[in-house]
Input
Amino acid sequence: MNLSEFRSGQSQSAQGEDCGSTQHLLLLDEFYRSALWLAGCQPRWWIIPNAEERNAEAFWQGLIHHHRVHPEHWLDFGAIPSIPPAEFVGAGLWQLNKGLSDPYKSLLKLLLTRHYASQYPRIRPLCWDLKDQVHRGLVDIESNDAYLLMLTRLTAQLQSEGSDVRIQLARRAFYYKARLPMSELSSAQQNSWRARVMRQLCTGWGWSEHDFYELDQRPHWTPVRIARERNALISEMLSSYRFLAGFSQKYAPRLHISKEDLQVLGNRLFAAFDTRPGKIISINPGISPSLGQETLSLNLRKHVWQLIPGPFRRQETDPARDQVLKQSPSLVELLCFARMNDLLQHHSRIALYPQHNPLSTYELKEVLQVIRSLQPYAPQPEDFRRPARPLQWHLMVNVGVDPQHQLSRRGMQKISNRDDALGYSAARENLIHTIDLVSINSWGEWLVERFSGEAAMLQCLQHMLQYLPQLKHFDWPAMNVHCHCATRASAIRIRVEQLLADVLRHFSEQPRSPYLIEAAETYYLLENSRAGVQLRIAESPMKLLALLQRPLSQFTPYILDRAALHSSPLRLIFDKSRSGLWQLFYWRKDERVYFYFLDEKGALLHQQWPDSGNSSHWLLPLVRFLRQLDQRWQQQTGRTQARKLMVFELRRKAQSYEFEMVRRRLPELSAQSASIDLRAVLDAQQQPTLYCNNLEFSPWQFGPDLYREVVAEIRKLRSQHEEYPLCLSDVLVPDSVSIIEHLQVKQRLENRLNQALADDNL
Output
């Protein structure tokens, strides 16, 4: 190494064994207390008394001046007057990352760093203890062993904090770091000074031969025991790191770690230790060489799956805590856990309980084949410099679920020409009940997101679409769909694959357009926004129509899934949607007129009235109303051209549920004026004042008799034999230029007027 660069604190990035930019004096402290001098020049630090560490250079120059040393015979690695608090966060991050492969060694060093921080500002490095002993002539190996010095300090610190559990954990870490299995020592090892000192220490701790045997059996510990040890180690290491982070935030505004190293180490740490629902964690960070199991038992208890290493003790109705390794409603999550932690080997035998189980042996075999084929990803340092992104998606559909179990139990299956898995048969059944989305990302994490219920497919799509912004830089992850349930598995898999392809392609190409999906007579609208893709649900056709009439800020065509609204006129209507136009569609059925209006931005309004058989009673007044509004808004905005209005009649095709449309001509301009001009003006409180041929009828004037008085005036103006519904020719809604809102107000007021007309006829 370059000695001058090292003294100045320069080092490489935190990718190798040198700790990078995370720490300098902490590393030097470890070097001085553990390095062995084999040949060449000696570190000059050894001839500087501890009392002179803060004045090391002046003391050294004094030695040279008095010719007590030859400068060329000594190497200057630097003094350790103290340890700056800015190094502690970097050291904590580094040790946590090293703990992924050697947790016991990292725990000891983290505890020591935490001990140093607790001494601030009078930090006494451990290397000072070693130098003091050597300068006093205490040079035997036992007194100067670096790890014995560390253990002495840590034990005193933990005893002062009164935590026996933490002391025992630190002692286990020291025992494993020494690599002296006391129950398996050879005769040569038993006579060594290390074995003798270790036995003395363990005797002082009250450890017995049984304790030695149990600790030395660590390679053969059960996975449940390993998981408990892992949790104890990780909890203590994270606790120490949080202490160091809080200490550094208080005392060190500038950290001794580069931003790049902080990002890489922090993200790697998050990927390894973060726990959240569905995250598959590693329970074996260097604790045992292998967790492979000859037998794994899967037990279903109260709709929750339990993973049990080894055989299941059947006589127990409730497995003991030390028997169950992990449990979850998702069987896929348990199998991924077993796969990632190497419990699941190719030779492992899977035992399934209870005997009567919704998961068949065939389905389990197929699911296991998929889980075994999953390919882990080994992240590179550059992966941790960016946010995690999914690289693989595996959708496991209906695992352990038969969507038609009531028929299957009787050896029957429903057969239908309607083969859509989201609306199967005439009963429109949704056959997709659960989805387990297995995601493997660029940080090497495995996550299992479980979606269940009628909206499982749509919730899964919404989750996947949250990664839409990443398409600017990366492609969609590799996707695979798997379904092995007892009923319609192939049709379900194909439908999910089609839906994935259609929806992801749509939002990649047209992210502003909402996508409508129909499943089991429920409607789901996926729409993009600044907050991400939102899922809106309408449980009935009327609720869907209410959803579609929301005002839009710009033209937004609704895109329908290939199986949505096949027997509804809406499919044809939305296919006709055009920007800037007003389009009116009507359909006559069962003595009613169903009216659909698309505004210039694609919002849809639906209304219906009794069908009098004469379109002039509703179509002509409606066209008048639209023209009146458009003329007023044209004048207000300075628009030079009238808005184009198109009228279509909808009809069912013969022998079919599908619709066809016929364009109708607009009434002549001469017919677009009315002999009775009936207008309404709303105030700020949405109270209407009505005008009949410019005669004013206000609520403050007539109160509850307002509509009856208007009807009486209209009767005076009509011929005696004229009986047809009342229609407003204009409505003025303050602070609104929404045609949809005006049409809604128009219908509400007309309903009140026509009710008053009907009451007057009684």
